[in-house]
Amino acid sequence: MEVGFIWEVYLVLLLVLAASFALYILLKRANAWFYERRLGEKRLSLPPGDLGLPLIGNMWSFLRAYKSGDPDSFISTFLQRYGRTGVYKAFMFGSPSIMVTLPESCRQVLMDDETFGPGWPKATCDLIGRKSFIGISDEEHRRLRRLTAAPVNGQEALSVYLGYIEDCVKSALEKWAGMETIEFLTELRKLTFKIIMYIFLSSESEHIMEALEKEYTALNYGVRAMAINLPGFAYHKALKSRKNLVAILNSVVKERRQRMMSCPPPAKKDMMDVLMYVEDENGRRLSDDEIIDVLVMYLNAGHESSAHITMWATVLLQKHPELFQKAKAEQEEIVRNRLPTQKGLTLKEIRQMDYLSKVIDETLRLINISLVVFREARKDVNISGYSIPKGWKVLVWFRSVHLDAEIYPNPKEFNPSRWDGYTPKAGTYLPFGAGSRLCPGNDLAKLEISIFLHYFLLNYQLERLNPECPVRYLPHTRPIDNCLARIRKISSPAM
Known about the structure:
Elements: H1 2-36, H2 59-66, H3 73-82, E1 87-92, E2 95-100, H4 103-111, E3 116-118, H5 122-128, H6 138-149, H7 155-177, E4 182-183, H8 184-200, H9 206-223, H10 234-262, H11 271-277, H12 288-319, H13 321-336, H14 347-351, H15 354-367, E5 373-377, E6 381-383, E7 386-388, E8 393-396, H16 398-402, H17 442-459, E9 460-464, E10 471-472, E11 478-479, E12 484-489
Parallel strand pairs: 2-8
Antiparallel strand pairs: 1-2, 3-5, 4-12, 5-8, 6-7, 9-12, 10-11
Helix pairs in contact: 5-10, 7-8, 7-17, 8-12, 9-10, 10-12, 12-15, 12-17
């Protein structure tokens, strides 16, 4: 009787295991069945890949890889299973998606606005704003871009901000050198936020600046998270920060509106003034909601990438003393060639920083501050022999391109000299994107980084307290201690 009972238990267990396995197989096929069957015969020409489990899709494997020490293992699994096709299907951020990982495919998606429109995830649109660049029509995007790019790019604009950035950098470095320890990344974020605040909201107070910068830290953790609005999830916390940001900016906008009613337009306009006074061909001005979403987007993008790349360029140079000395020698030569009456940097001198420019380009390639951008197919299209259905998301995977050993030998090695005499082919170098939606603040970002590194190389050194500190890759690549360090002054400031 005991033997019979044992066999009954075994049988039940086997049935449970069989049922669980059958359910797992059914769930594994559910996304493919739901999204692909409606495509008819077109599904036969979809790229290779796997749409994963319902709702979750491939997000667990993506998050697991990027929270580990090997973020590239996510794309590697597709390469190992399906080969180097460069185009894979997946279910990412709540949508059936096509991931493109090779230069030609990336270039095609980024340059063809007629076929590919913006396709950012729900979390990004909700947090950055649906009336910002990521959510508006192509026509409105072109108009707003023309208006807002001029104050942050081009020689005239950069000349206006150079002196201010220079003063901020020198003051910050002097302050940090007098402190026992600092979170280097945190302090750099405060510095770059101060600069972007000056450009956009020149007259705003220190109190407003600190309040905004604090909320942006939480906002960024939710931008590339799953849109789960429950306590404990990054998106839930980020929504609260978005609400606080909007409230702060709304008070600023209302104050400017009142000033507009009682005062003539200012002679010198910051970006807020530009947005408030601009009119379309029908005389319509931007609403408060539109202005706030554009500000949320620009203030975020305008300080995050600059701070992170400045930190990594500094850390990487300090880690390679021979490269540090080479970069420093170039800056010393620039100072030696300066007229005795000259005080401070000029744009001409910054354009002469050939090796430092390569340092920045190499840091942008290696660190990949934007690991992916999102588009959506506006119609059925063919890429590399595979079909992309209308309405599916298209993820341009910059990180895979920049760390491709066939394009950049020893891709994870920091080697600024790889840029000697090298002009990257179209689609192989995309730190700021490409096409009509190229990051509008790329020139300003490089200017900030160049000015900081100029003064740092001449006068300071970085001593990390935890040089082997693990790295976190989401939302941006950073040491988990935010680069806890000492800044040590080694000479008098260069004039």
